[in-house]
Design brief:
- By secondary structure, this protein is an all-beta fold.
- The protein has one domain (16-180): Sandwich (Jelly Rolls).
- Helix content is 3%, strand content 45%.
- The strands form five sheets. Strands 3-4-5-13-8-11 form a six-stranded antiparallel sheet, with no helix packed on it. Strands 10-9-12 form a three-stranded antiparallel sheet, with no helix packed on it.
- Strand 1 (8-11) and strand 2 form a beta hairpin.
- The chain starts with 7 loop residues before the first strand and ends in an 11-residue tail after the last strand.
- The structure holds fe (ii) ion.
- Fe (ii) ion (FE2) is lined by residues 85, 87, 94, 133, 149.
Length: 191
């Protein structure tokens, strides 16, 4: 039997290997997402996303694998977060899993109802394809979260622009608080 090495691996908090790409998101690209970015350096790094796309791009039935590393920074007290998205194909679900750090996974349905799941090392999160999802780092160190999603899911950022997540998450020293965001803040998990 011929044994070969794996084509990608986690290494020192990142994914390395062939067909792994990454990008870094800075505050200057997401200023509108925060309540106020005044006084915070627009070059502040918010998060890095790694994506392992081994198969044919966008092929139905194929899977992508990734990891997002959120920095422990705040923007006028608001916790570091990802841009967040729906999937273009609302029937495409996704798994997230906590690797290290602590945070929240904000989930929002298409009516704007928003709630959160706690993310920590070892937590596993099934994200229904109809739900928007955003990660928030509430801890004192980096939040690292793995993901696996259908290659043809696509990203719908426009829907988030039109209807923002219902809550904003803030950190004051060690205390985590949240505030309703516009008209969408509805705390109940939908029936
Ligand atoms: Fe997703």
């Amino acid at each position: 039997m011929h044994i070969i090495e794996s084509r990608a691996c986690f290494g020192q908090g990142m994914i390395q290997g062939e067909k792994v790409s990454s990008y870094q998101k800075y505050l200057k690209e997401m200023e509108g997402a925060f309540r106020s970015s005044q006084g915070t350096d627009s070059e502040t790094l918010l998060y890095t996303t790694y994506s392992y796309e081994a198969g044919e791009a966008g092929k139905a039935g194929d899977l992508y694998f990734g990891m997002t590393v959120l920095e422990p920074v705040t923007v006028n007290g608001e916790c570091c977060m990802t841009r967040g998205h729906f999937h273009l194909k609302r029937n495409c679900a996704e798994f997230y899993f906590g690797i290290s750090g602590s945070g929240l996974l904000l989930l929002m349905n298409e009516q704007g109802r928003t709630w959160a799941e706690r993310v920590e090392a070892g937590s596993v999160h099934y994200i229904d394809g109809k739900l928007a999802h955003r990660l928030v780092n509430t801890g004192n160190g980096q939040l690292k979260v793995g993901a696996c999603w259908p290659a043809d899911a696509g990203h719908d950022y426009d829907a988030i622009e039109k209807r923002a997540f219902g809550y904003r998450i803030f950190k004051n020293k060690e205390e985590i608080t949240w505030e309703e965001n516009g008209e969408n803040g509805i705390s109940d998990i939908p029936k």
